[in-house]
Amino acid sequence: MHKRVKVALKVMEDCQPHCMECLAKEIKDKTDSGNHLWKLFEDEGFALVKPKGRNSAWKEHCNVCGRTTSFRQLKEPVPIYETRGNLHRVNFTKDDKKRIWELFGKRCPIFGNSIAHYGDIEIDHRRPAKINSVDEIPLKELNDEEVIQRYMPLEKHINQVKRNKCSTCLSTKKRPAGPNGVKFWFDGGESYIEQTNCWGCAWAYPERWGEELNKILNE
């Protein structure tokens, strides 16, 4: 962790609004009056409160220094993101794992087997995270439907299989067959195109894939 972040965190870890001018004085940071500390915090994976219609800073009168200055506030006292390129990836908590495990009925959405404990799962993105073009949102800020639309609970060895399928798809532009080599895509075909993206693939949307395949088999 960056030295300046470590020092400032001792003040900001209460997750209350803080005057950046006062913060800079308190931590003896004379480099930028505290107004660029937010960037260091974000680089370290911390999320800042962003009032509606504003960025992470807002102007407010400070009763301590008596001036109208920039204020900022942490959402959580611990990092909830990891930085990947120019984007932020969410770090998943134990509560996140338990929640998604229960949302999926404690079962693997790809193979249907039961998963004994949420500690046995990894939270996987339905679509590879590398093709996302926006910062991720912490799970606790998503409703159940949004969580299900974006993520799946997979056991580690299953997640590795899916990861390899996705990697090969993105490098070859050929979408993988489903489990047991079933060459069926409920939307689009074998060729990966940006318009269709992962929609139609058994590894990204196994529930819909199974439903559509059964419709054909039952005709």
Provide structural commentary.
The chain is an alpha+beta fold. A hairpin with a 6-residue loop joins β2 and β3 (68-72). It has seven helices and seven strands; from the N terminus they run αβααββββαβαβαα. The chain has helices at 3-12, 20-26, 37-43, 94-103, 144-150, 156-172, 206-217, and strands at 18-19, 58-61, 68-72, 81-84, 87-90, 121-125, 151-155. The chain folds into two domains: 3-72, no CATH class; 81-217, no CATH class. It starts with a helix and ends with a helix.
Short characterization:
The protein has helices at 3-12, 20-26, 37-43, 94-103, 144-150, 156-172, 206-217; strands at residues 18-19, 58-61, 68-72, 81-84, 87-90, 121-125, 151-155. It is of the alpha+beta class.
Distance between the termini: 59 Å
Q: Estimate percent helicity.
A: 25-40%
Discrete helix count: 7
Shape: elongated
**Can you write the helix and strand succession as a string?**
HEHHEEEEHEHEHH
Please indicate the count of domains.
2
Order of strands across the main sheet: 1-3-2
Uncertain ranges: none
Mean pLDDT: 87
The description of the largest β-sheet is:
3 strands, antiparallel
Radius of gyration, in angstroms, nearest whole number:
22 Å
Count of individual beta strands: 7
Percent of residues in beta strands? 5-15%
Q: Kindly name the structural category.
A: alpha+beta
